[in-house]
Write a structure and sequence with these properties.
The chain has helices at residues 2-20, 44-51, 55-61, 76-89, 102-106, 111-124, 141-157, 184-204, and strands at 28-29, 37-42, 65-70, 95-99, 129-133, 161-164. Helix 2 packs across helix 8, helix 4 (76-89) runs parallel beside helix 6 (111-124) and helix 6 (111-124) packs across helix 7 (141-157). The longest helix is centred in the C-terminal third of the chain and has 21 residues, at 184-204. By secondary structure, it is an alpha/beta fold.
């Protein structure tokens, strides 16, 4: 029985990646032609937020253009390189949404290293506000909580960082059997959550 459950879990995870891995890591521009551009970069949770949760359409409906860079397995150091390249090409608006850290928690990145990676990412944003979605997992729960504390500390000392508290959202615990990835309902909820937070931030800007 235990062996069957293990096989089913592996199959479910494989199907998740087959279903979501066709989102281009090179970035997809929003069909919206008006509104502030929101640059979103994140890992496999963002892949499902984009594909299942229809993040681009939700941002468009809220009056925003968007550039989306979701990539399975994306760690913060690699996302920093991608952001730096996008800024150099001129493809980044005034706000960056970072949904990063899950893969750093997976490999138990030290608090000091994660702190420095956050600094590097914010530096790559070149003065733009960074809305950073925090973490919630079951399998890396202690490391996720630890990195959340690092992120919260950074936000207290740097006004360019705003933490989006997904970890406190009711749907953040709605995970599939691997304890990491979101159920379809949670992916929709996360897309709504991110859109609402971007909207709230934009209303505070001059």
């Amino acid at each position: 029985m235990g062996r069957c459950l293990a096989v089913l879990t592996m199959l479910h995870t494989a199907l998740f990646f087959v279903a979501t891995n066709d989102v281009s890591p090179a970035g997809a521009a929003s069909p919206c032609v008006r509104g502030m551009n929101v640059f979103v970069i994140g890992d496999s949770l963002t892949v499902s937020t984009v594909k299942v949760g229809r993040l681009s359409s939700r941002l468009c409906d809220a009056g925003f253009q968007s550039t989306l860079l979701p990539e399975n397995g994306l760690a913060t150091w690699r996302a920093t390189e991608m952001l730096r390249d996008a800024v150099r090409r001129g493809g980044v608006g005034p706000v960056v949404v970072a949904a990063l850290g899950t893969n750093d928690a997976k490999f138990a990145v030290s608090s000091d290293l994660f702190s420095r990676q956050i600094d590097a990412f914010v530096a790559a944003a070149r003065g733009r506000t960074v809305l950073w979605v925090n973490l919630r997992t079951r399998v890396f729960a202690s490391d996720s909580a630890r990195l959340n504390r690092v992120l919260a500390s950074k936000a207290r000392s740097n006004q360019r960082i705003v933490v989006l508290d997904w970890a406190s959202n009711l749907f953040s615990s709605a995970l599939v059997s691997d304890g990491i990835h979101l159920t379809p309902r949670a992916s929709v909820a996360r897309a709504k959550f991110m859109t609402e937070k971007v909207t709230a931030w934009s209303e505070t800007e001059p």
